[in-house]
């Protein structure tokens, strides 16, 4: 499931057959029908997924200009 408006959907083009595309649906109404969620780690999404027992894959977004994630070596 992905929530895209008409402009976004036009930019994406064809989506796989196993992906449902909706314009807007409240997350609370959507999550009971989801096998899992993939999101950026926002508080609202994470908490709603917890409430509904949906497994989560969090892909955090970095602020613009921040260095890419990597290994930190301590002295």
From the N-terminal CA to the C-terminal CA, the straight-line distance is 45 Å
Rg from Cα: 16 Å
Strand content: 5-15%
In terms of per-residue confidence, which ranges show pLDDT below 50 for 5 or more consecutive residues?
Answer: none
What structural class results from the helix and strand content? alpha/beta
Q: Helix fraction?
A: 25-40%
Q: Tally the helices.
A: 3
Shape: globular
Would you count the extended β strands for me? 4
Largest sheet: 2 strands, parallel
Q: How are the strands of the biggest sheet laid out side by side?
A: 1-2
- Quote the average pLDDT: 82
The string of secondary-structure elements, in order, is EHEHEHE
Please give the structural blueprint.
Elements: E1 2-3, H1 6-12, E2 21-22, H2 27-30, E3 37-39, H3 43-52, E4 56-58
Could you characterize the architecture of this molecule?
- With 75 residues, the protein is α/β, with parallel strands linked by helices.
- Helices cover 28% and strands 13% of the residues.
- The protein contains three helices and four strands, in the order E-H-E-H-E-H-E.
- It has helices at 6-12, 27-30, 43-52; strands at 2-3, 21-22, 37-39, 56-58.
- A two-stranded parallel ribbon has the order 1-2.
- Helix 1 (6-12) links the parallel strand 1 and strand 2 (21-22).
- The longest helix is centred in the middle third of the chain and has 10 residues, at 43-52.
- It starts with a strand and ends in a 17-residue tail after the last strand.
- The mean pLDDT is 82.
Task: Describe the structure concisely for a colleague.
This protein has three helices and four strands, in the order βαβαβαβ. The radius of gyration is 16 Å and the shape is globular. Helix content is 28%, strand content 13%.
């Amino acid at each position: 499931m992905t929530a895209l408006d008409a402009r976004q959907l036009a930019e994406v083009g064809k989506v796989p057959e196993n992906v449902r595309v909706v314009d807007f649906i409240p997350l609370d109404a959507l999550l009971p029908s989801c096998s899992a969620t993939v999101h950026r780690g926002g508080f609202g999404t994470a908490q709603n997924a917890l409430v509904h027992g949906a497994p989560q894959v969090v892909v955090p977004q970095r602020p613009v200009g921040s260095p890419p994630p990597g290994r930190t070596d301590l002295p």
